[in-house]
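Run folding on both entries below.
>entry_1
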Amino acid sequence: MARVAELLSMHRRTLNRRLDACGTTFQTLVEEVRFGIARQLLEDTDLPLSQVAATVGYSDVSAFTRAFRRWSGPRRGRGAHPAARR
């Protein structure tokens, strides 16, 4: 978060206040981006799950799987997408 605030030329607390005013948190934004990237990789590539997990910042596939289920519900993922069943 400190790096993002620096890139935006503001103090970390200012960034926190502005996100709070928008009704969100930095962690929520990070999770949304991770989910979007993971979903796209699962739907559009044949990358192994371990590589998708690593790409979005998870060193452990089981932790990534739990996070993905939290983001999308238990029935979503590579097997749920028609193109992934090839």
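>entry_2
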Amino acid sequence: MEASGDLPPEFSGFRDIAVDKQRAREESRRPGEWGVDYVFDVPLDTAATITGYRHDRWVEDDFFPNLRTLVPKMC
């Protein structure tokens, strides 16, 4: 992973934890076993600290489930 610029302070913590988990998983992985990419979540976790939103988590008091799709009525 490459990173540059003025990153949020939480980024380095997320990155360090993900890299450690990735290395530990790779060391214990058996031949032919699928791998796991913990580093993929680093930008997502960092963005979630800024926005308070994460695409794969439930949002309390989310009004979107109450929305309905309107379909044009053909005359």
